[in-house]
Amino acid sequence: MAEGDIKNGEKIYQKCRFCHILNQPANRMGPHLMQLQERKAGTIEGFQYSAAMKQAGENGLIWNDATLKEFLTAPKTMIPGTTMRFWGLWEGQIDDLLAYINAQAEAASKP
């Protein structure tokens, strides 16, 4: 799991929240981020993914800290044809963001 500053990750997530919901299985402009770790790319039911993202999943792309870091650094470089409208983050920002997302997922999985 990513080691980063969870508090700073929460601030960085503010850039993401308009398109991605973190703790509810509802889609916006982007797919929700619940149960993101170990999820096959392009597979949230009911979300209209780009052909490129669907193909990435069919080719075996699984989201984990390493693949998310690569994608969040330069989405259109990793998956040419993605419709994600974001240019990317710096490495430290990504570590913080993933620490926050992972902490939220861990908290949601506890009764």
TrEMBL record:
Protein name per Swiss-Prot or TrEMBL: Cytochrome c
Molecular-function GO terms, alphabetical: electron transfer activity; heme binding; metal ion binding
Domain Cytochrome c: start-end pairs: 4-105
Leader sequence segment: none
Keywords, comma-separated and alphabetical: Electron transport, Heme, Iron, Metal-binding, Transport
Coiled coil: none
Database matches in PROSITE patterns: CYTC (PS51007)
